Amino acid sequence: MAESIQLSSTAHKRLSDEFQERTTSRRREITDRIEEARQHGDLKENAEYHAAKDDQGHNEARIRQLEDILKRSEVIEQSVTANCVAAGCLVEIRIAGDDDTTTYLVGSIEERHDDFDVLSPSSPIGLALKGASVGDTVTYQGPRREITVTVVTISVP
Q: Which of left, alpha, beta for 135 (phi over 0: left; psi -120 to 50: alpha)?
């Protein structure tokens, strides 16, 4: 069985709204564009027709993706405690040997946050950080070497 996807209620609503829009008005708009382009004659060299068909393919692919995400989604409570790293929290980390810190929103890539990059809980660093508390140091395997990070702060967005 496919792994569940943890989403905030805000992200779940945004994805549900996008699904609704893509399966109704956007589908109709693309169908109308295809029909209009067909009326222009020879389909072999009809750029409008091919562009509309491409848009239709992209739209249908996104619909299937949204359907899968929504089917597997698990809405997480925003009352995540700031005691340990978990989906839905903001985690500030410092990579060993670096003075700067970086703050991430832990969650599905579909969370899309304006102020923070999203850190997937199933990524190598996300798995290493899961359950860590402030001050904990964890190590994970990066693309070329082991990387050690320290949890500086954990908060709720």
A: left
Shared domain for 9 and 55, answered yes or no, is: yes
Pairing assessment for the beta strands 137-141 and 90-95 based on DSSP bridges: unpaired
List of E strands, the chain = 5-7, 73-75, 90-95, 102-106, 117-119, 137-141, 146-155
pLDDT digits (tens, 9 = 90+) for 106-116: 888 787 777 88
Tokens of 153: 């702060």
Beta-carbon contacts of residue 82 (< 8 Å; ≥ 6 apart) = 89, 154, 155, 156
Q: What is the pLDDT of residue 49?
A: 92
Does residue 128 fall inside a structural domain?
yes
Query: pTM here?
Result: 0.70
Residue 93: DSSP 8-state: E
Which domain, by its residues, includes 145?
90-155
CATH of residue 41's domain is 1.10.287.180
